[in-house]
Amino acid sequence: MTGQIAIIGAGPSGCFLAQALLKAQPDLRVDLIDRLPVPYGLVRYGVAADHQGTKGVTRQFARLFERQGARFFGNVSIGSDVGLEDLRGAYDAVVLAAGLSADRRLEIPGSDLPGVHGAGKLTRALYEHPEAEALPELGARPLIVGNGNVAIDLLRLLAKSPEELEGSDLGQGPTDWLAASGIEEITITGRSPAAAAKFDTVMIKELGKLADVSIRVMDAGESDDPDAQKKLAALDALEGGAGARRITFRFGLTPVAVEGTDRATAVRFATAQGEETLACTSVLTAIGFDTPGDLPRDALLREERDGGLAEGLYATGWFRRGPRGTIPDNRADAGALAERILGALSPDPGKVGAGILAGLDEITDYDGWCRIDSAETANPPPGRCRAKITTREGMLGLARQEDTQ
Amino acid sequence: MNIQVLYGTETGNAEMLAEDIVAELEADHAVAAVNLADFDPSEFDTGTLYLMVCSTYGDGELPASAQPFAEKMAAGKPDLTGVHFGIFGMGDREYDETFNGGPATLAALMTAAGATQLGERIAHDASGAEMAEDLAFPWAEDIVAMAGDALGQAA
């Protein structure tokens, strides 16, 4: 063994970093620690249920544990179960790859009214995260604030008919919730003109396949920029349809206030022409992500340079860069950071490594995850590829079964 | 037979498949996986079989690691007459319109430069039920068999 590295967070950026580290130095000890009993973070709970191809990246991550010698320590919270400083004392290097799981708040009057929901909170509920809140009532006319890829994912899911969710891993509860949602119209708004909108063109093109919608694109404008022209052309191609659910794209709308007395009933926007108020039955905010506050991110990142925070302490992925960039962008980061970590590594054989976690109850390991994964994929309901175990207790129960076999 | 598995990847899935193909063929052949980002078109050799594995990224575009290769092909305009390749595409039919756009672009680059494509371009669908390697291993064996004749040496 030529050094011990702990990575906090077993999501895609942590896994890609582990992969790069072990590729460069196969005899390294790399431990991935996650607060959930299961690995893969955003791939499991953030990538849309109907984007199973994107989730295929977990086949690479499985190899980390099965062939490259990485270890998984699930159900371990940094702070309450083990302190960050204790972990730094136990390992030669510690990498924060915890992502950003909290919704960035819409800081305008009325944004705390009932009926205003963050996209992250809602998708966690849709994808059956064990700590998710119950799925809320959205009413007939939800309005989405923000039009990045997260917003488009949400729009697509809400607009799909039950048949269009074939092959996904959307659970029974969320499936029933969607079928009973009674959504008639979804308005999606962005601050910038369409040419500068945050979504990827391919996400817009995918909406063209929706079976039961009619789509209107208002004031998309024009552009001289070739990339922007692709976006505009993709939007233009969406126009029309005779489906039951109406989708309206709006641009150049800056939210000023959420209106309503006991719940959100409209959003007031500033526009180039003045102000405009759009009525709605709920407001879904998809304007970025923030730290949930379990780690003092701002303080940790104050001295950050190229992923290095302090001696033997690093950060990667969204935790370092903020909520921008796709899963493969994090892979690109991982190679450079791995080189940097290995260059600075001075292994101390006296360090206890995972021994620091020895006193903790109910840690799950990779074999435990495999038992959970098998249980989830063994007998999925018709039209589904997986039925997620939705509670921490359920996961821990399955993970624990090794003792009884 | 000398074989190079050239891969263009963005998420790493094509790289993993390239490594799997190497593992599958290395008992019988001198075979190595090479990232297209690290490959210069001037290295193409008529005595080597090139198995290309390529994904698609963004709006039907070449993945990041294939882009420098495409630029070098455009700049160097190499004559690849006598060079033989097969191509395996990894895509996701959720994005129907641009499905396998990357490998289609790559195959066109090769044939436009005079290279000969062996076999059909295979397209794996990440949203489908089949594992990439279950399609790719028989494909690789087929291409190797075809190349045995084309390259004029024992497979």
Automatic annotation (TrEMBL), chain A:
Pfam families assigned to the protein according to its UniProt record, in alphabetical order: Pyr_redox_2 (PF07992)
Signal peptide: none
Domain annotation FAD/NAD(P)-binding: ranges: 4-160
Protein keywords: FAD, Flavoprotein, NADP, Oxidoreductase
SUPFAM superfamilies assigned to the protein according to its UniProt record, in alphabetical order: Nucleotide-binding domain
GO molecular function, one term: oxidoreductase activity
Superkingdom of the organism of origin: Bacteria
InterPro entries: FAD/NAD-bd_sf (IPR036188), FAD/NAD-binding_dom (IPR023753), Ferredox_Rdtase (IPR055275)
CC cofactor: FAD
Gene3D superfamilies named in the record: FAD/NAD(P)-binding domain, NAD(P)-binding Rossmann-like Domain
PANTHER family: GLUTAMATE SYNTHASE 1 [NADH], CHLOROPLASTIC-LIKE
Protein name, entry field: Ferredoxin--NADP+ reductase
From TrEMBL, chain B:
InterPro entries to which the protein is assigned, alphabetical: Flavdoxin-like, Flavodoxin/NO_synth, Flavoprotein-like_sf
Keywords: Electron transport, Flavoprotein, FMN, Transport
Matching Pfam families: Flavodoxin_1
Any GO molecular function: FMN binding
Domain of life of the source: Bacteria
One cellular component (GO) term of this entry: cytosol
Boundaries of every Flavodoxin-like domain copy: 3-144
Cited PANTHER family: NADPH--CYTOCHROME P450 REDUCTASE, NITRIC OXIDE SYNTHASE-RELATED
Protein name: MioC protein
Lineage: Bacteria, Pseudomonadati, Pseudomonadota, Alphaproteobacteria, Rhodobacterales
